Amino acid sequence: MFQYGRTVVAKSGLKNYIQPVYRSVVPLLMRDRLARECVNPYSELENANQVIFVHIPKNAGNGVAKSLFDMTPKGHNYLSQYRSADPQKYVDYFRFAFSRNIWSRFYSAYAYLKKGGFGVYDQEFSRKYLERYASFTDFVHAMEDDVLASKIMSWTHFIPQSRFILIDGRNELDFLGSVEDMSASISYIRERLGLPQRDVSRVNASDSRDYRYEYDARSVDIVGRLYADDAELLGYTFHPE
Asked: Of 58, 139, 144, 237, which residue is least crowded by CB atoms under 10 Å?
């Protein structure tokens, strides 16, 4: 219904009049949630390749999709959304995602949004929740406030990876690759789907800076506590072995 409404507004020519009212009435975090959850997750990428690619934010999803299918993924949808939208495709299609070290991903999301992210919602989020802090560690320290942490972690790029992957506590993916083992993960998917093998050296997360230099001991503990479910599910530690 939400997606249909957006289409009607866009075609009616009233977008420039309705959009400012919508933004002034509906809170930012709710707008982000509606835009993310009230859509059909199946796009051309999924249907053309008979896959379900759970594009977790800041986990090199654009590069993965480009390398595998020469296509751009649409949005960041939970695995549960695919099951609800079309149970038959959910059963028939190959379901996969990529994970990333939780501390690396968290810093990457912060740096991305600090620069404005993508689109007006990200820019508004950055102004409201990031600009007030002088540094990354100041931002993380502030998340010791549970109310603030809840708001931050509801934003697309900070949502825990487990929320994208799990359905009723179960991992129903056919394959979970990792950013840290990108080459082997991509090669496996190519073999599974019958795709030709290619060089994947350019497929990586969007930033190459070593996240470990951005944290102090206090911020390491805070992020570890906030993403404890991800750490347990995915097996990540701050200092990889």
From this structure: 237
